[in-house]
Amino acid sequence: MALCISASVMATDIMVSIESNGVLRAEGMEPGSTCDVEWTPDLQSSFNTNNPSFRGLTVDSNGTIRVPVLMDSPCMFFRVKGMSVVEATEGMVQIPAGTRWCER
């Protein structure tokens, strides 16, 4: 198992780990930003974003995300890709990625 992190919009010190209960934890990111966790079974393949529970994760006020990961193969590589906080302009609201919303 290996972890990679894309730190383009992240804070300077980032720690990514998989806890003993199978939860991927990344801390040190920008609070309120969003990120995706991508995975691949080997480094010759493209990273996958096909797991909906890995997309549009909101970083908590402590700069941390936690997401359960299932180890489907003996070797899996993960990376966390962050997106910066988008400032809401006057008269607009910010809806976190992955939120189901419809106007009634």
Describe this protein's structure.
This protein has strands spanning about 1-5, 15-20, 25, 35-40, 55-60, 65-70, 75-85. With about 100 residues, it is an all-beta fold. The protein has one domain: Immunoglobulin-like (Sandwich), CATH 2.60.40. Residues about 5-10 have low confidence and may be disordered.
Descriptors:
Immunoglobulin-like; 104 residues; globular; 3-stranded antiparallel β-sheet; 4-stranded mixed β-sheet; mainly beta
TL;DR of this structure?
This protein is mainly beta and 104 residues long. It has strands spanning 2-6, 15-18, 23-27, 34-40, 57-58, 64-68, 77-83.
CA-atom Rg in angstroms: 15 Å
Strand order in the largest sheet: 1-7-4-5
Give a count of the beta strands, DSSP E runs of length 2 or more. 7
How many angstroms does the end-to-end distance come to?
45 Å
Please tell me the CATH architecture by its name: Sandwich
Q: Looking at CATH, which topology would you report? A: Immunoglobulin-like
Gross morphology is: globular
Give the H and E element order.
EEEEEEE
Number of domains: 1
Helix content: under 10%
What is the C-level CATH assignment?
A: Mainly Beta
Indicate the multimeric state.
single chain
- Class of secondary structure makeup: mainly beta
Mean pLDDT across residues? 77
Question: What percent of residues are in strands?
Answer: 25-35%
Which stretches are low in confidence, meaning pLDDT under 50 for 5 or more residues running?
5-11
Separate helix tally:
0
